[in-house]
Amino acid sequence: MAAEIQPQPQARKPCLLSTIEGFQEVVSTAVIIPKEDGVISVSEDRTIRVWLKRDSGQYWPSVHHTMSSSCSCMSFNPETRRLSVGMDTGSICVSPEFILSEDYNKMTPARTYHAHQGRVTVVLFVLEMEWLLSTGQDKNFTWHCSESGQQLGTYRTTAWVSGLQTLAEFKVINKNCLLLTHFGSPTCLLFVCGLCFVLGNVTALCWDPVQRVLFSGSSDHSIIMWDIGGRKGTAIELQGHNDKIQGLCYASHTRQLISCSSDGGIVIWNMDVTRQETPEWLDSDSCQKCEQPFFWNFKQMWDSKKIGLRQHHCRKCGQAVCGKCSSKRSTIPLMGFEFEVRVCDSCHESITDEDRAPTATFHDSKHSIVYMHYEPTAGNLLTSGTDKVIKLWDMTPVVS
Fold it and tell me: Structurally, how many domains does the chain consist of?
């Protein structure tokens, strides 16, 4: 009697629900409308569109509005249905410039602010304070009162800002608690109760209000988890992408971080584990294992009559080692290294199979991602790519 063949269980991965096409240029920003089968998009082709899902299962634009120049960014507040749009000309269509009707079939323009002299890079509406925050390539960060339309202040930055994030628990305590990240500059300014911290070059931001942790993604492919609220000063590194980080979002109910990058990768990180800080790299003139001199240590090379070796560092202990003493590679997921990295021979022996157990899953979106948005109510993820296509994903198989 032949044995019955049991089907192999399918791996848990995001499920592609729909694609939205028809754009002439790249979609700069797009968001999923909470509790609605709808999407709002702004594009470099100068269009603002509201897409609603029809009975056929396809998304069709219920609103198609053409602006005078390219749309660079936007902010949508679902409670008030206010849509704030940044322009390439430097003018900002801010709330209540566009108010969407309850059925999302009509968009009413109201007011235009001329807050910047260059392309607007970020616009963010904060309902609790009735503030409209914006940054531009003119290196100015401005904030307006959305009720009166008056500019409340401006701040000159050393480089144009690509990210802006409010820290939820500080908004009521101190209205100046804002986070600015500089693109093209090695600095990132964090304003918390009047204090400024240097964080590093950042391209994407995400805030966990429960654990009071800030996640920052960088053009160097890395993600760093900053302990802002715990006051321990720890910074945990996450390495799992091969290209620039383009978006971050955090599912607080499952303690999972979702990250996307330019190479099309979607990574789901399990943050409900005890992670470790990566060690500082130690300085030495010779290998800290075999004591062979490095190539700049002329005195020891002369005394020992040996050719200097190239310096490396073990990613687990941080010691300076030569290539012979660090010939092994290993993943170290609890240190954030989901890819194999260089480790010294002694550390390689100490790493167990349990230590190598992955803490992240990797998925391919099959398009180069430029923007992402996660809607936790339905567990759906939106990705916009350089292929001028929006993809909608069901993340419940992996974020649960």
Answer: 1
Report how far residue 269's alpha carbon sits from residue 240's, in angstroms, rounded to the nearest whole number: 9
**Tens of each residue's pLDDT in the chain, 400 residues:** 333 333 333 468 999 999 999 999 999 999 999 988 999 999 999 999 999 999 888 999 999 999 988 999 999 999 999 999 998 886 665 444 789 999 999 999 877 777 888 888 888 888 878 888 888 888 888 888 888 888 888 888 777 777 776 655 444 334 445 565 555 555 565 565 445 455 557 888 888 888 888 888 988 899 999 887 766 677 889 999 999 999 999 998 899 999 999 999 999 999 999 999 889 899 898 898 998 888 776 777 677 767 767 889 999 999 999 999 999 999 999 999 999 999 999 999 999 999 999 999 999 999 999 999 999 999 999 999 999 999 999 999 998 7
Rounded-to-10 torsion of CA 264, 270, 275, 279 = -10
CATH classification at residue 314: 3.30.40.10
In a domain, 231, yes or no: no
CB-neighbour burial class of residue 186 (10 A; exposed 0-12, middle 13-18, buried 19+): exposed
Non-local CB neighbours of 195 within 8 Å, separated by 6+ positions? none
CA distance 238 to 163: 19
C-alpha to C-alpha distance for 305 and 69, rounded to whole angstroms: 68
Structural tokens at position 219: 């053009």
For the chain, what is the total number of helices (H) and then of strands (E)?
A: 2, 32
Which positions ≥6 away from 22 have C-beta within 8 Å?
none
Domain annotation covers residue 108: no
Give the domain range for residue 346.
Answer: 298-356
**What span, in angstroms and rounded, lies between the C-alpha atoms of 135 and 204?**
15
